[in-house]
Amino acid sequence: MAEFLWPIRVYIEDTDAGGIVYYVNYLKFMERARTEWLRSLGFDKAGANSESYQFVVREANVRYLSPARLDDELQVRTSLEQVGGASLTLAQEVIRDAQCLARAAIVVACVQGASLKPCRLPAKMLEQLA
Q1: CATH code at position 44
Q2: Which of 48, 79, 98, 115 is at 20 to 30 A from 7, Cα to Cα?
Q3: Which domain holds residue 112?
């Protein structure tokens, strides 16, 4: 699968008192990019909920390399690394110009909407990702 790029602008609400992006906001930026990646494939969160499945983050391994600052224009790069029966492993990077600011390996699990128990990825999604 080709990489997916999603633009992000750093707003005051994303920063600490010194104008530096607060560490947890990189995870929020990555969440937005994953949501838009799924939407670009034809799977939006509203549709997932109506089909009684959803995705939850099972694991996040983040490495912070350099700070982003107020008003920076960033991109979040998302690449699919592995498809399991009930999970997806993604590589994500937050980039400013050509510099990687944060890098993460994210594992999302597919769960049943009501019980939150693991379930297989939808067949339509597996076809799209193959």
Answers
A1: 3.10.129.10
A2: 48
A3: 4-129
Give rounded-to-5 percent helix, strand, coil for the chain: 25, 45, 30
Identify whether the C-beta of residue 45 lies closer than 8 Å to the C-beta of residue 35. Answer: yes
Distances (CA, A) of 103 to 55, 88, 98, 106, 109: 21, 17, 13, 10, 20
B/e letters for 58-74, b = 16+ CB within 10 Å, e = fewer, are: beeebeeeebbeeebeb
Q: Which of 3, 7, 1, 2 is nearest to 76 (CA)?
A: 7
Could you please report the per-residue DSSP string of 53-74? EEEEEEEEEEEE-S--BTT-EE
Catalytic: which of 16, 44, 72, 97?
A: 16
- Catalytic annotation present for 71: no
| Domain count along the chain | 1
Residue 50: what pLDDT? 60
d(CA 106, CA 100): 16
pTM of the predicted model, to two decimals?
A: 0.91
